[in-house]
C-alpha cells in the first residue's frame, strides 16, 4: 500500500475551481481556468490536450511544484492553500513524487543511480531492497552517476525514484516522450505496477502509447477540463461548478455565431445553434 500517514477518506487528489495565472510584463496568461477534477488511488490517469492546454501547469500544481493562483487543491485530505510551507515540504518529500518533463530536473548529477534510489528510500521511510532498477533495465548502470546516463536512462531513473516506496501520489510530465517503444513499455509497466499497489498516478502526455495504457483520460483545452473518459467508454463532456461545458472540436463548426440554444425537456437536454439576431426561434 502507499506509504501515507494521513489516511484521509475520499480521493487523494481533488481540484476545485483551480486557477493558474502566469504574470509577465507583456500581460497575464491564464493557464488553468477553473479546473475541477478528482483522482483516485489505484489508477493511472492520462491528462491530454494540445500544447498550451494547461497539462503541465495542472501537474506542476498537483505535485506542489507551483502554487495555484486560485481555487482549491486537496491532497490526502489537506487543503494545500491552508498548509504551511513546512507542511508542503513534508507532503512532497514523503507522499508526492514528481517526474519533471526534463529528467535532469528530477535527478542529482553527483549521485549514482544506486545512491539516488537509496536517498529516495530514506526520504520516504520506505523498506530497502526494492529491485526497481532491475525492473527498469538499469541494473547494469547502478553505479554510474546520473550525469553520465543517456537521456533515456535518465528518464527511466527519474521514474524509478518516483515510484520507490510507492508514494500516495505519483505525478509525471511526459514520462515517455523521448523513449523508444521498449523503454516506454518499461516505464508504463512500472507506473501501472505502482498504481496496482495503491498509488494515484497522474501523467501528462501526447503519447498514444501512454493514453492506451491509462485507466482514464482527462482532456484539457484552453485551461479548461473538456472531457473525461474511462477506458474504452464514452468521453463524457465535463461540466464545472459554473455550468461551463466544452463542445468537442468537431462540433464547433456547427456554431459559427458562437451562440447556442439550450432546450431542456424532462431529462433530455438539446443544444443547437442559436438563430441569427432578428430571426424567430425555429420550432
Description:
The protein has two domains: about 15-245, P-loop containing nucleotide triphosphate hydrolases (Rossmann fold), CATH 3.40.50; about 250-283, no CATH class. With about 280 residues, it is an alpha/beta fold. The strands form three sheets. A seven-stranded mixed β-sheet has the order 6-7-8-3-9-10-11, sandwiched between helices. A four-stranded antiparallel β-sheet has the order 2-1-4-5, with helices on one face. The model has no long low-confidence stretch (mean pLDDT about 90). Helix 3 packs parallel to helix 5 (about 150-165) and helix 5 packs parallel to helix 6 (about 180-195). The chain is about 25% helix and about 30% strand.
Highlighted features:
283 residues; alpha/beta; Rossmann fold; 7-stranded mixed β-sheet; 4-stranded antiparallel β-sheet; 7 helices; elongated
Output the structural class.
alpha/beta
- From the 3D structure, determine the CATH topology of the largest domain: Rossmann fold
End-to-end Cα distance: 58 Å
Strand order of the largest sheet: 6-7-8-3-9-10-11
What's a concise summary of this model?
The protein is α/β, with parallel strands linked by helices. Helix content is 24%, strand content 29%. The chain has a seven-stranded mixed beta sheet, sandwiched between helices. Strands 2-1-4-5 form a four-stranded antiparallel beta sheet, with helices on one face.
Amino acid at each position: 500500500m502507499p506509504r501515507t500517514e494521513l489516511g484521509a477518506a475520499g480521493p487523494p487528489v481533488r481540484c476545485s475551481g483551480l486557477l493558474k495565472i502566469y504574470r509577465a510584463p507583456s500581460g497575464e496568461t491564464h493557464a488553468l481556468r477553473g479546473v475541477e477534477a478528482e483522482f483516485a488511488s489505484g489508477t493511472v490517469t492520462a491528462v491530454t490536450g494540445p500544447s498550451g492546454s494547461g497539462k503541465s501547469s495542472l501537474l506542476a500544481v498537483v505535485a506542489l511544484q507551483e502554487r495555484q493562483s486560485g481555487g482549491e487543491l486537496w491532497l490526502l485530505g489537506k487543503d494545500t492553500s491552508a498548509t504551511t510551507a513546512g507542511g508542503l515540504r513534508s507532503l512532497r518529500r514523503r507522499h508526492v513524487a514528481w517526474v519533471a518533463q526534463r529528467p535532469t530536473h528530477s535527478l542529482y548529477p553527483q549521485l549514482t543511480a544506486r545512491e539516488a534510489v537509496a536517498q529516495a528510500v530514506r526520504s520516504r521511510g520506505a523498506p530497502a531492497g526494492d529491485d526497481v532498477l532491475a525492473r527498469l533495465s538499469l541494473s547494469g548502470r547502478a553505479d554510474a552517476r546520473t550525469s553520465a546516463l543517456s537521456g533515456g536512462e535518465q528518464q527511466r531513473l527519474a521514474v524509478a525514484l518516483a515510484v520507490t516506496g510507492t508514494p500516495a501520489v505519483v505525478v509525471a510530465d511526459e514520462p515517455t516522450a523521448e523513449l523508444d517503444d521498449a523503454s516506454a513499455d518499461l516505464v508504463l509497466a512500472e507506473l501501472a505496477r505502482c498504481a496496482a499497489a495503491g498509488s494515484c498516478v497522474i501523467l501528462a502526455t501526447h503519447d498514444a502509447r501512454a493514453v492506451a495504457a491509462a485507466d482514464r483520460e482527462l482532456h484539457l483545452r484552453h485551461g479548461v477540463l473538456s472531457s473525461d473518459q474511462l477506458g474504452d467508454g464514452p468521453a463524457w463532456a465535463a461540466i464545472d461548478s459554473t455550468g461551463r461545458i466544452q463542445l468537442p472540436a468537431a462540433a464547433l463548426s456547427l456554431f459559427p455565431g458562437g451562440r447556442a440554444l439550450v432546450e431542456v425537456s424532462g431529462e433530455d437536454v438539446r443544444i443547437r445553434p442559436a438563430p441569427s439576431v432578428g430571426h424567430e426561434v425555429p420550432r
